[in-house]
Task: inverse folding
């Protein structure tokens, strides 16, 4: 007997489900109409006062069995869905998302197409001298690497640490790169410097500590030079994509994302490389993703397996620090490869058919 | 003109809102009826097959503008709310929650009522000798402290670290405590030892590493001895309350919760004391909450301000490690107070009217 | 017999210990002399090439039983200690440290002396309108609060979120504050704006996302306006102090530090308030420390116990978001207190004798 | 002139360096002698009282320029190095370390040699019925997989969640596995069950929540059945290796380590897969390392790239959850692959030559 009763009740639930479905969609249609009117009038979509009114009316009419909080939670979900729908309609979906732009973005630097096949970006942590940069550049050319990195403006935790050679460092990089037919990747830290940066660098790096320096991101969105944006020390993947959106939404679509590890409690590595972020970002976004194996691990003894893992996970390239004599480097001595170690890394990656 | 149009559309939305409200609540009533039938028949409330069926029907009937994912997300919220409602009906709301038991639980140990006014639990990290424990016990009595803690079974990261004196340690604690009129708090680590523990200890401690050792929790739920449960190294507040629920749901309602810091990236402290957890747990649960100032900070130079902060935040007590000669302690040498430091702490807390 | 042998061996160890002590100190003296010469010549203290040489010689002469790595580790400790000693000699010890400046720094804003007795900074998350700010200002004055906070430049995760009213917002703040005799605290995000900020604000806030925006810190070091510096989302205490050092070392000694919670895995709070940081920073530094109870918790139901805990831990003040109608706020709706809640907070803190 | 002076001072420093080197090593030799005597007498190596004495003498004789704290820090490093040296001498270096056992440990389960070439372990999160397990088993056999996993004892956060079928579940696993020629991997949670487990399972799993349940580890060390040990939710790599040491030091050398992600602030994944841990553990230890791609990601859309990354990083195998109908699974519905998805994963890994 009760089984029959159960079936009858379930049929009622199914019916209500369909009525709810109908009403929710009908509601969405009206909200779309409202949105269109608002767009014509230049009014913002989200109107907190109006939402308040609706909430008050709903609460006043709630007779249970759900309590007010549950009801308001459910309606907020419905409101939010409607708002999201408007955003889709209005093409406000993120420009960096694959939904908006299904094809991979290819960032072209000289004759290198980042996003097409894996690339290597290598060079010293800091630019120290023309000689130092030249030695590394020579090694890079021998290995077929096209992009050299080097820090001229170094954001350092302590004001008393080596802060980089500044413009002088950029000039050294440019000169050496031109001598060896390389392209330059280097960090810019002040919004005011973004405009002159293209004179010296081919790719402007925005460092982890500046990932949410929104003024710098906005400035980066106003040049045509490709931007290499590093994930913040403790940024979520979502925040990382929003940071890229700041750049892209201002017109510069040439953005390369760099996973460089996140801060955790683990002590045997400098950071924890978030390898899951690589395929997730590739899925969510059309921008190329590169893995910085130096800052993530902070130790060079696992460079080869980690570079392989990054490329196997779908990364569009590797970024690594190389120094002619790491123990005397002015910064990050422990994590920079020497030239032999760099050659071994390249050999291993070529042997595994990644390059 | 369009403002009038806007008003008309808004009126329609308000109407639909109320229809939705009505249907959602009506749906909930039917689900309650179904729940009652199921209860009679001893069937589980949640039926994934049935949920599947409903989802399939809804999806088949969705004509937009919402896409299927949005619709299914909204319905899952409604399903979940209905299920929660049933759980409330069926008194499945957590036993540790204040909703179920609005009055504070008072845990009585000897003549100490934990949860009524702030208490102090102090003693050495590890029981090393009768002499060591006696020296501490004497100090405790002089300060009016009633509960002595000391580790006999020490869960240590390395199998080669001092593992505690075991039963021998419990006997020392019992003897000294009886001599000085104190009550004993000590950790038990094996479910098989829970039953005999009350012979030696007045409060069974379950340590941070065992917070999700569910077999130990279940065993602890089957004795009458009060349980002092420490938050796991990286447990959420929610997981902490669920761990307590394992004990309480098996019949032992005498549970004291201990916030002892959580693992973060910060290097200047052993753990990060989650002070927010204190008022949040007090609000969510009726169980007493104590703060372990030794394991959270891992340094004793901030013992006084932190103890004050914990009590100001509403904690029901403080737990602290005290050793006659910390530099020679067999474990946790850096974080144990010596007797003078302990006296200073007690004096400071009394002066601030916490005791 | 072997006990006598043991004693003899121990005597030898003691003798060697004293020889080591003598040599280590003698070495330090010579290093100091070298340092003095270098200072005269304007050479940097740390010379990696020279360190390399020493390491090579030591390694070449090591015959065990310690292996090279252990020996090098021990010598690096000795080198580092010597370098630290030089830094002390050269007054390079951090300017923000209490070792350098034992007395508390008092930051004076109007007639408020921050660092002397606890203060309250309150106001809306974002400046939305003159009316909104005025309503809050009136409440502040009634409660005896002297500093109003409000965001005009809002660093937001998404470029599509409300970014604040900008200069217009600063003008509103200034006007309302002047009407009510209040002082203004507001965030500046672009180094280029630091110079004009004092026209509108009495305290320049540097937000959590900009704690390591070193260009902004440097600019903040070059004005006389007090700076309120928030701890980064995942900054260590050490990094926080170094960030303050960037400002102080450029000449602006009026810095207020704000603990605002750090990012952890916990989901029931927006951030985890690191209460231990309060007494630790007070111990390490002479700068005043304030606790932001809104951003740390991200929920207002625990505002009172957390404010009490912060002050009991030694904080020099509380910062809290207050909005006339939080549910319609353009940002952070969940964590802002309404006026009644703010009055309750003030009443509770006055009753507990904190104000 | 001062350059000559500099050279002379540097020569003195070099001389002192060599004297320090000599004394430190000489000291170590005496400590070794003392250690030998202690070993004969069965005395513990570390003697805190004696260390105290030495410290007191050193402090009494320190005349600077180093302050006492610096001196004591340096001597503690020397003491610690000496103690470490003794531990090496006494073969107390961890049994799980590659220093102790340079060759890879191969764990043999039936005709599968784990640690030799990559393997796959697959199966449902929970054992629900014989039919369910059989469907999965059939798929496994078709793909050449030899080990089936399935949970019979489920450690669940809430006491009201499905706790598994218990012994009944183990019987189902055994029966199905025997029918299909598979080997069984299943979790045991109570030390008391370890002894009977081999009757049903071929590999005993110890779950993440029990990684520091030392009583369970000790019990696992006393059987001959291979143990699959998962890394704790927030365990460091070092703690993970120590947990394995608990098992191996009690005689069971057949231990497989499983990296399954660690808890971080990231919200788009259930855990953060610590890919760096794979090559680091392989370097530090001789034990095989497997990556659980289900619990780390908590989402199945990135299963293929993550499995490739894990194997490219040097993992000895992959562990993945497979269910005939994930949406109706009694646990972890979102992260289990269905049979088609599992087949795609196997095809992708075979095509990439990992299997």
Result:
């Amino acid at each position: 007997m009760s089984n029959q009763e159960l079936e009858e009740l379930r049929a009622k639930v199914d019916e209500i489900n369909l009525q709810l479905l109908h009403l929710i969609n009908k509601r969405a249609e009206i909200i779309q109409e409202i949105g269109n009117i608002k767009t014509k009038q230049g009014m913002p979509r989200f109107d907190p006062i109006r939402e308040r009114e609706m909430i008050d009316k709903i609460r006043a009419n709630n007779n249970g069995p759900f309590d007010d909080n549950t009801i308001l939670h459910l309606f907020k979900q419905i409101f939010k869905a409607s708002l999201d729908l408007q955003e889709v309609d209005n093409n406000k979906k993120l420009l960096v998302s694959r939904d908006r732009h299904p094809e991979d973005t290819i960032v072209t630097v000289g004759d290198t197409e980042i996003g097409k096949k894996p690339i290597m970006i290598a060079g010293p942590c800091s630019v120290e001298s023309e000689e130092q940069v030249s030695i590394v550049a020579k090694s890079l050319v021998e290995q077929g690497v096209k992009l050299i990195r080097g820090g001229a403006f170094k954001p350092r935790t302590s004001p008393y640490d080596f802060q980089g050679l500044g413009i002088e460092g950029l000039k050294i990089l440019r000169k050496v790169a031109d001598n060896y037919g390389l392209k330059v990747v280097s960090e810019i830290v002040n919004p005011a410097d973004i405009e002159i940066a293209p004179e010296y660098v081919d790719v402007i790096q925005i460092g982890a500590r500046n990932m949410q320096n929104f003024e710098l991101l906005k400035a980066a969105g106003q040049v045509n030079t490709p931007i290499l944006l590093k994930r913040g020390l403790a940024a979520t993947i979502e925040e990382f994509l929003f940071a890229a959106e700041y750049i892209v939404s201002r017109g510069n679509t040439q953005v390369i994302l760099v996973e460089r590890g996140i801060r955790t409690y683990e002590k045997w590595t400098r950071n924890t490389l978030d390898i899951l972020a690589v395929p997730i970002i590739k899925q969510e976004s059309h921008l190329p993703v590169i893995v910085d194996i130096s800052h993530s691990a902070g130790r060079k003894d696992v460079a080869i397996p980690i570079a392989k893992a990054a490329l196997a996970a779908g990364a569009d390239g590797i970024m690594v620090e190389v120094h002619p004599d790491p123990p005397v480097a002015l910064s990050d001595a422990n994590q920079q490869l020497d030239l032999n170690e760099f050659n071994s890394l390249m050999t291993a990656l070529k042997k595994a058919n990644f390059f």
